[in-house]
From TrEMBL:
The lineage of its organism: Bacteria, Bacillati, Cyanobacteriota, Cyanophyceae, Synechococcales. The active site is at residue 203. Keywords: Cell membrane, Flavoprotein, FMN, Membrane, Oxidoreductase, Pyrimidine biosynthesis. Binds 1 FMN per subunit. It comes from Prochlorococcus marinus XMU1408. HAMAP family: DHO_dh_type2. This is Dihydroorotate dehydrogenase (quinone). Belongs to the dihydroorotate dehydrogenase family. Type 2 subfamily. It catalyses: (S)-dihydroorotate + a quinone = orotate + a quinol. The gene is pyrD. Pfam families: DHO_dh. PROSITE patterns: DHODEHASE_1, DHODEHASE_2. GO terms for cellular component: cytoplasm; plasma membrane. PANTHER family: DIHYDROOROTATE DEHYDROGENASE (QUINONE), MITOCHONDRIAL, DIHYDROOROTATE DEHYDROGENASE (QUINONE), MITOCHONDRIAL-RELATED.
Length: 385
């Protein structure tokens, strides 16, 4: 039934736009959707909007207790989350549970408000179910983010239908050697809102940011942020372009410094087998700057999660993201070692029913394998049946 609804509504309204690289600018399309989400979140108690959201939740939510687990001290109703990058300013913080997500990661947020890189900076690569972005942490800054969340009057951490993570980045104007202070300013302000917080040191679109993935830099960041009195569970998000040795080092330094989990992976500078593919600019992907996301990252995402599972000795929760666009790819990422998974590009291309499709698929596979809870799937290496 949901598939028919998607065909009748989502595909009719947006399918044609999303099936081609040309047409409405990808960022304009995203911002239009976010404006509608912002209005609905602020006014979700109005009768007409409440009725719409109620119908949405009946379509998209799955209240299956076998998908529940407690991680980072929070109860996740299911393991599927919205990845950082879509709701940069937290305008939909009060709404993501209605779409069926068990959690949502807001941001990336920086201490200083910033416009990001010049436009155009977001491109659909429709045939390959991928996107290229060089947004550059465009956001309204931590102080405005706080006000945006407060206006929505959402419940406090631990009392929400949807766990909320806060993804933090370094302001572009802040020198690299002052990065810990920059992150700390944002975290000190936003910690009371956060079920967990993420140190984003892996975006390719802020000059020098990825150099913070080194052992010494992670150690300094972790110690600075962990010293904050109300520091929430702290995760680090890493790049897909790291060597296996670097991944092992990050696993070790994370465990040594009290990092609570690792998110893998961010967007990639690798163009895989798409180097000669031309995009809307007329240039090839190899000629364009920015991070690649979506289906081309699926294999690398699996490799990194599997590597982290081994190098952490199964001691740290992992969040898998990158190229997840189906129930099968979600199952495979969890079976490889991810405790939680996130979607973004796949959600854009496949539509909102991707969420219940994934949750239904996970539930079905658990029954086929005889698992009683999603936790039993994590790292099991059991194949999709």
């Amino acid at each position: 039934m949901l598939k028919n609804k998607k065909t009748d509504l989502y595909n009719i309204l947006l399918g044609q736009l999303l099936s081609q690289d040309d047409g409405i600018d990808a960022e304009i399309l995203s911002n239009s959707a976010l404006n509608a989400i912002k209005y609905a979140s602020l006014n979700r108690n109005m009768p007409i909007i409440s009725n719409i959201l109620s119908r949405a939740s009946s379509d998209f939510q799955r209240n299956n207790t076998t998908l529940n687990q407690t991680i980072f001290g929070s109860n996740f109703k299911n393991p599927l989350g919205l990845a950082a990058g879509f709701d940069k300013n937290g305008v939909g913080a009060g709404l993501w549970s209605y779409f069926g997500f068990g959690f949502a990661e807001l941001g990336t947020i920086t201490w200083h408000a910033q416009q990001g890189n010049p436009k155009p900076r977001l491109f659909r690569i429709a045939k390959e179910k991928a996107a290229l972005n060089r947004m550059g942490f465009n956001n309204e800054g931590a102080e405005k983010f706080l006000k945006t969340i407060e206006k929505q009057k959402i419940d406090t951490p631990g009392n929400r239908p949807c766990v909320l993570g806060i993804n933090l980045g370094k302001s572009k104007i802040t020198p690299l050697d002052e990065a810990p202070k920059d992150y700390a300013l944002s975290l000190e302000l936003l910690a009371p809102l956060s079920d967990y917080a993420v140190i984003n040191v892996s975006s390719p679109n802020t000059p020098g940011l990825r150099s913070l993935q080194g052992t010494k830099q992670i150690t300094k960041l972790a110690r600075t942020l962990k010293d904050i009195s109300n520091c929430p569970p702290l995760l680090i998000k890493i790049a897909p372009d790291l060597s296996n040795e670097a991944i092992d080092e990050i696993a070790k330094v994370s465990k040594d410094n009290g990092i609570d989990g690792i998110i893998a992976i961010n967007t990639s500078l690798d163009r895989f087998d798409l180097k000669n593919l031309k995009i809307k600019t007329g240039n090839t992907l190899e000629q364009e700057s920015g991070g690649l996301s979506g289906l081309p990252l699926q294999k690398r995402g699996m490799e990194v999660i599997s590597r982290l599972r081994r190098s952490t000795n199964n001691d740290l929760p992992l969040i898998g993201v990158g190229g997840i666009n189906s129930a099968r790819s979600a199952w495979e990422r969890i079976a490889a070692g991810a405790s939680l998974i996130q979607i973004y590009t796949g959600w854009i291309f496949e539509g909102p029913t991707l969420v219940p499709d994934i949750l239904d698929g996970l539930t079905s596979q658990m029954k086929k394998h005889g698992f009683r809870n999603i936790k039993e799937v994590i790292g099991s290496k059991e194949p999709w049946k």
